[in-house]
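agent> Task received from the user: take the single chain below, predict its 3D structure, and emit structure tokens. No templates, no multimer pairing.
agent> Plan: (1) validate residues, (2) run structure prediction, (3) serialize to tokens, (4) report one or two observations.
agent> Step 1 OK, no nonstandard residues flagged.
tool_call: predict_structure(input=
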Amino acid sequence: MNRYILPLLTTALSMGAAVPAMAQNMFAPHVIVNGSVVTEWELQQRVRFLTLLRAPGDIAKQAESGLIEDRLRLDAAKQADITTTDEEVEAGMTEFAQRANLSSEQFVTQLESAGVDRTTFRDFVRAGVVWRAVVRQRYAGTVTINAADVDRMIEAQRKSPNIRVLLSELILPAPPGQENQAEDAAEDIVRRVEAGESFASFARQYSASQSSENGGALEWLPLSQLPPGLQPVFLGLEPGGVTQPMQIPNAIVIFQLRDKQEGAPTLRATEVDFAQYPLPVESTAGEAATLRGSVDTCNDLYTSARRNGVAVQRQTQAETALPASIATALSGLDQNESAVVTVGGQPTLLMVCARRPISEEPVDRAAIENQLTNQQLNAISAVYLSQLRDNAIIQTP
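)
tool_result: status=success, residues=397
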């Protein structure tokens, strides 16, 4: 809130002066959540905030729902006796601003220039920070990530999605001092294209790109060659859909997705961690099947090996460096699956312990475990928040 508004209102009330209707309406309750008021001013601020973030969908509806859920988050924190420090909130604001490659102060300055108060941003972040603490306190002990989960995540990384997109572009010049006019024009174009008008016609008429002669049409592009921040944007579009205007130096760009194709995933070079358990030469198929049925992971082989006086060989090699007979057998196995083959004239149980993409950087298993933990906690927190909303008393004045 502008720091001058509240003191002026307080002074006017203490002097018995009449407060303008606009000011009265600004602080009128919009919705009451478990006795906590969400004002019209907060709603207007959240709408502006989400608009600046270019949130898709019905922004007014999202703003109201988000404020209700923030009240529920704060209420849950209060009941759990959880609070946040100013330092934690500042760190959250900094982290959020960094998504736009800005410092916290730079981000706040841009918000304020668009009429969004600093406290709106702070309250938004504070609700998120305290909610994470609530969820971790309540549910962290219920989430268990084991080594096999991490191995499966690592193995999944060896498959790179093979997706390509067919785009059209429209680039509007936005020289210094004319950014607002260019943004307004871009937003108008997006609205009209979404209403059915031709993107290509607008591109021919207004785009400063060389592709304007072709209606902004570009050639097929592998999704992996696009900036990481744009990839989910195009994945979320259906053919014919357009992006919200994006700011680039001295210009604003809009993309339309004309088509999208997905082929078989591209496999990255991988290494395989596997175990070899030699079987007696005279062993039967039934004995081998019994052994396979008694072990779930490579570590289980060691227990059986100690009992039977057998030496387990475990090694990690690039798949391209494996002997042909072993490579063929392992190629059809997933993690913790096994097969019996003949190695050096002796029947041998082969089991895949893990597969990993070959990378110059070491695999950060702790980071992957944290990522998986957060994924599970996010899913749990969504259910918990839904329950809080179902049980809340939400009143509209």
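agent> Step 4: summary for the user.
The first strand starts at residue 29 and ends at 33.
agent> Done.
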